[in-house]
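User: Sequence recovery, please. Input:
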């Protein structure tokens, strides 16, 4: 890989320094370089499980950003979009004339180094689907290199270094990052308006996805959700082969006869061009995961993976990190966390929870970004109204300042007033976990949802419930 990257970049790679190395994608990219014999170092403002893993592998990781981390032996700087231009490491690199690439640009370079890059795009489901494909390809012996946004159980991490031409990765549409990718197989799971701090309307989103699809070469494939009219709109006049997946009979790969077991896990028949391919069973819940798995099935079938092997791999896949991840079942109280933050994600996740037939569904939700909460306010309350009880935390600002005037607690107020759903706003995480622990009773299903820091609450609730019932059995 080193030779391929040096050829693409036209530089000799002595050391690549990652500014913001603690993120899931950045840490994975750094690890891939390290395992290919390229010296990679990095810095981040705080330690994490990802930085701990890098340190244990012998990588040099600095906590805190400092100009002293950059010197003449740096060949390239890779930084995340969240890094400010005034960052001391970026300023030092500029002084020294060291080339710099934003994370998505570097990921684009990585995709060029492989002959068979599989890029998974869509407003929702990217991490689950890319992780599922990575797991299938790995278990089937295709030896892929992988860089995804969540921990893949089969890989025991968020990355893998393989020796084949296959590279499985996510393709994020935010600020058109995925247009830097060079992929042989592109997957579009769904298209909706999101990232409203960048995209002004759905037409702009569709235009970006059209450009993503147009990158695929003539001998490549676009795997597209054929149930979406917006996706079908962008499939015209492409050089590559378009393969559609979905629930309606017009799709090349169609899922039908869906049933669920007592734990909400689906089984379904897949027809390929009208002929039964196989009946598959998943270990991850919800109809949305039937759709995600259909894309993975089509991808695996195109790449020649035998159906029996594909079926076994699907059945063993337990989900990606923070995607409907179980945190415990204590005295018949189930605790799950999920990354859902867009209203569509939130709705399908709550629907999946309902398949468990729990006595009561309690949802803890952390709104993600002021712009998304403001723009999708009605859609968020509509998704949350299907819960029996909702606790809303403060809005997770991420990269934003509150230019929209949205206030913490407005979602809870609207649920109480407009939907007659019992809801409360609580700012403090410890207070949230104490509140849920004290009110929970056997038969409850507790979902902790959000893309920010709220996942800590899921761990705390499970721990406190265990303590509560051990002290008062």
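Assistant: Recovered sequence (473 residues):
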């Amino acid at each position: 890989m080193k030779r391929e990257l040096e050829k693409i970049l036209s530089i000799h790679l002595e050391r690549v320094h990652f500014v913001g190395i603690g993120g899931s994608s950045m840490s994975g990219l750094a690890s891939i370089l390290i395992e290919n014999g390229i010296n990679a170092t990095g810095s981040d403002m705080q330690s994490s499980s990802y930085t701990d893993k890098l340190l244990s592998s012998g990588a040099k990781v600095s906590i805190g950003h400092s100009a002293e981390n950059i010197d003449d032996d740096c060949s390239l700087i890779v930084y995340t979009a969240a890094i400010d231009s005034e960052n001391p490491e970026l300023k030092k690199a500029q002084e020294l004339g060291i080339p710099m690439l934003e994370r998505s640009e570097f990921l684009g370079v990585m995709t060029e180094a492989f002959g068979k890059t599989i890029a998974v795009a869509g407003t929702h489901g990217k991490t689950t689907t890319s992780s599922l494909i990575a797991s299938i390809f790995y278990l089937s012996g295709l030896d892929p290199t992988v860089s995804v946004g969540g921990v893949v159980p089969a890989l025991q991490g968020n990355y893998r270094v393989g020796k084949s031409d296959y590279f499985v990765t996510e393709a994020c549409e935010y600020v058109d990052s995925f247009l830097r990718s060079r992929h042989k197989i592109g997957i579009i799971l769904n298209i909706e308006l999101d990232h409203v701090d960048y995209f002004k309307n759905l037409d702009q989103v569709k235009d970006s996805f059209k450009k993503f699809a147009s990158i695929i070469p003539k001998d490549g494939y676009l795997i597209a959700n054929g149930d979406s009219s917006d996706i079908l709109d962008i499939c015209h006049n492409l050089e590559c082969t378009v393969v559609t997946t979905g629930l309606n009979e017009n799709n090349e790969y169609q899922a039908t006869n869906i049933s669920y077991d007592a734990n909400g896990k689906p089984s379904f028949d897949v027809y390929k061009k009208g002929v039964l391919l196989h009946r598959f069973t998943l270990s991850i819940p919800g109809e949305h995961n039937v759709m995600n798995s259909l894309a993975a099935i089509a991808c695996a079938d195109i790449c020649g993976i035998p159906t029996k092997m594909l079926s076994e791999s699907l059945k063993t896949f337990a989900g990606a990190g923070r995607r409907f991840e179980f945190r415990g079942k204590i005295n018949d109280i189930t605790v799950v966390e999920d990354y859902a933050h867009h209203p569509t994600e939130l709705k399908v996740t709550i629907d999946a929870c309902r398949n468990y037939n729990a006595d009561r569904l309690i949802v803890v939700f952390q709104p993600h970004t002021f712009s998304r909460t403001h723009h999708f306010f009605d859609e968020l309350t509509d998704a949350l109204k299907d819960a029996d009880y909702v606790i809303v935390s403060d809005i997770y600002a991420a990269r934003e300042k509150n230019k929209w005037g949205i206030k913490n607690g407005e979602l809870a107020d609207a649920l109480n007033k407009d939907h007659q759903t019992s809801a409360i706003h609580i700012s403090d995480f410890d207070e949230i976990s104490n509140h849920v622990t004290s009110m929970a009773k056997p038969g409850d299903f507790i979902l902790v949802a959000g893309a920010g820091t709220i996942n800590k609450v899921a761990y705390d609730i499970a721990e406190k419930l265990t303590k509560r019932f051990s002290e008062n059995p």
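Residues 134 and 168 are 6 Å apart (CA to CA).
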